[in-house]
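Researcher: Good morning. I'm working through a list of sequences from a screen, and I'd like to move beyond sequence-only analysis. For each chain I'm collecting a predicted structure so we can compare shapes side by side. This is the next one on the list. No need for commentary yet; just the structure.
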Amino acid sequence: MLKGKTALVTGSTSGIGLGMAKAMAGEGANLVLNGFGDAGEIEATRAGIAKDSGVEVVYSGADMSKPAQIAAMIEEAEARFGAIDILVNNAGIQYTATLEDFPAEKWDAIIAINLSSAFHATRAALPKMRGRGWGRIINTASVHGLVASVEKSAYVAAKHGIVGLTKVTALETAGSGITCNAICPGWVHTPLVQKQIEARAARDGCDEAAATAAMLERQPTKQFVTAQQIAGLACFLCSDAAAQMTGVPIPIDGGWMAQ
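Model: Good morning. Structure tokens for this chain:
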């Protein structure tokens, strides 16, 4: 479905981003991976995707909190592949604390990586998308882009901002062949969520199974959304069937938003 296209997925060395990157490569898209981690593991991931999918896969270690590095990543990818056809703004970090205890530097970091990076990447990628008359921008938001939870002021603010940025991008690109949508997952068992489970277990003096069950109370199915399910939705949004879907925040949340 995506043969001849190039996809750049930020925050794609693990979790949801890696799932989306693998799925798009599996559909024939050349791929730009981005994220932090062990250099050897990242190279093994890159080489493995390239071998399994038969596409060209490159890696950028751009720091998504640094606008100049984001711009350089887009420029390098365009020089290599001609354009970024599919941009997935997925990079994200988390920190939890009450408002009065929330460190200012953690707020700044979360806003920079979870929100501002999507603006900088989109701004840099749009001109070539417009030139080709085709593009797909997918922003990883969250149910926390639609509702709030305690102790997540920066994350909730950033994800609400992502939903707003998605709508503005959609309006400004309407009719151009470019779409922009936001995927809003509920709980997904990523390394980031595993850390929250461990912290909750330590705080509440319970085992991880009990902490997981308490976490999933907000999700009526009581099951985690999988990275593969999110990846399938992302690939659908790149298809011709989704050409008239734009500006939409799409929950994939086990019924969370139905309550």
